[in-house]
Structure formats: C-alpha cells, structure tokens
Amino acid sequence: MIDLYSDTQTRPSDAMRRAMANAEVGDEQRGEDPTVNALCDKVADLLGKEAAVFLPSGTMCNEIALMVHCRPGDEILCHGTSHILNYEGGGPSALAGAVMTALPGDRGMFTADTVRAATRPASRYAPKTRLLEIENTANMAGGVAWPLEAVQSVSAAAREADLIVHMDGARLLNAVVATGVSAAEYGATADTVWIDFSKGLGAPVGAAMAGSADFIEAVWQWKQRIGGAMRQAGIIAAGALYGLENNVERLAEDNAAAKSFAEVLAGSPNFSIDPATVDTNIVIFDLADKTADAAKFSARTLAEADVRIGAVGPHTLRAVTHMDVDPNAVRTAAERIVRL
Length: 340
Ligand SMILES: Cc1ncc(COP(=O)(O)O)c(C=O)c1O
Prior knowledge:
The protein has about 350 residues and is an alpha/beta fold.
C-alpha cells in the first residue's frame, strides 16, 4: 500500500531509533534533560528567538500560545482554512475563551488590507482583536508556502494595529526548503512560532515553540497546568533532534514528488489540479465530475489501487508526500489513481 494519507504517517528510521535509544536524559520538567535542552536551544536559534519549549504536539503549541496571548472575549484573526479554526476541537474558544474570525483569501493567505479591515476599533461592544494567526505552510490550501514579502506585509499590518502575531509552522521547514527563505526570516514576522517534528521530519512525536524568554516562561506554566510537562523526554527529543539534523534538506524531495503527483493527475480530464500551485508536499485536488463522491473515491483508491489518500471535501481529496514513500512510488500512486 502506498500511504499518502499524511506526512504524520512517517515512522522513525533505524538510525533515528538508535539516536533515541542512546539519548542522554534527565527530568525535563525540572529543565534537567540535556537532550531536550539541546533541542530547545537549536529550535530557538533556528527560528531566531530567545527561547523555546518542547511540547507533545503542534496542537498543544497552538492552544498554549493562544491561552498565553488571549483573554476570554478576545478575537483571533485566522484564515478560514486554518488548523486552529477547523481541526483543534474549538480549542481556542474552549481553552482561551477567544472568538475566532475567519479571514478570506486565496490559497490560505490573506492580505494586509484584509487584516486592517478585520481589526476592530476599540469598543465596549466588540471583542478585542488581539492576535493574528498565520499558517505556513497553509495545509488545507494545498501546502502553500507564503512568500516572505506577503507574510511580512500582513505581519506589519497586524503590528501597526498592536496585534500579536502567532505562526503555526507545523510544516514551516517545507516552506523554507521550497522558497529559500530562512526559518529565522519567517520567524521574525511572528512573535511566537512553532515547528512540528512528527510530520516531514520523521520523528514519532513532538513539537517545539519559540518566542521571547518571558513568553516561554508563561508557556511553561500552562504546560505544567495541563499536564504537558514530561520526565525523561530526551528519548523523544532525540528523534526530533535527529530529524532536524538529518531530514530537513530532503524535504525538497517530498516537495518535488508532490508536484510530479499533481502533474500526472493534471494529465487526466477526471481531476482538477494545477501543478503550478503545488509549492510543497501537499496536493489538494478535485474530482472533475461534481456528482462523484470524494469519500467513496478514496475508499476505492485504497481497495482497488492500494493507495491511501484522504477525502477533505465532498469532491476534494488530499495526498501528502513524505520520507516513507519514495518519489517513484508517489508517481506510481498517481498513475494508479488516474487508471482507476
Ligand atoms: C497546519 C497544522 N497545524 C497544526 C497541526 C497539529 O499538529 P499535531 O498533529 O502535532 O498536533 C497540524 C497537524 O496536521 C497541521 O497540519
């Protein structure tokens, strides 16, 4: 079976497992785990921030960041396709007590004008617009990598209006590899930013969030409160470190394989996809026949073509490339889907 369901399907390689088995460990909750500390230093440096914290998941990064930044009744501006709005169980409302407003915009992005128009003037009647969230890459827009100027301009508009800028960088390193913009250049556009290790970097678990030393101290209190503090977490941090040290440049292969997948599909009249819009490792495509059902089609690709892809809308499917499926197999998967 060729599994293109998600880059979260990656399993730790033998070399990563060895690094994990041999990791030096200590009590992470007390700041005594040398591997976790090395990982946090590396991430802070990579993202150009004062400090970083290791957390069990990207969702926990987003939710804790929003709890630190927002008070109940505050408003978060985010794109309508964003993960925090659609896939975190309403966490920003349930946990931070914030209202989320969906911004419109092509390909998971919005403009500075859109941010300015959405920011509410101070009023006793309105929620206080507190924070702008930027997702880079924009997952459900098809792994879109924000051009640096675009993200700089929305960030400047947000900062002019005194908004905090938070970046969901679950796949930021796919964007870095695709655009040549450094993680620190992207990081400079946000006050707080995190990256995931359990996706394209191939680690089994974990994410790390960076920001000012004061922010990270506040994050630690929430981490403690909600049970995210860990003990000998160096075992898992070693997988993350291994991924950062060995698996970043190879993300370019995943990005290229996704484009070739899209090119094969684009050669068939049965699919609607423009390969030029595939920036990174996610391909979102439509069935041209609007009476066809994406969930049924994805069940058939698994049963009859041995290819696993996800249905993400009534006529829309998603394929995600990653290190456990080589580029030839990605192409084969596309060819089998076209035949089906
Ligand atoms: C854009 C984006 N943000 C956040 C997350 C959540 O990350 P995690 O699965 O590590 O909780 C994901 C996961 O797919 C994602 O795609």
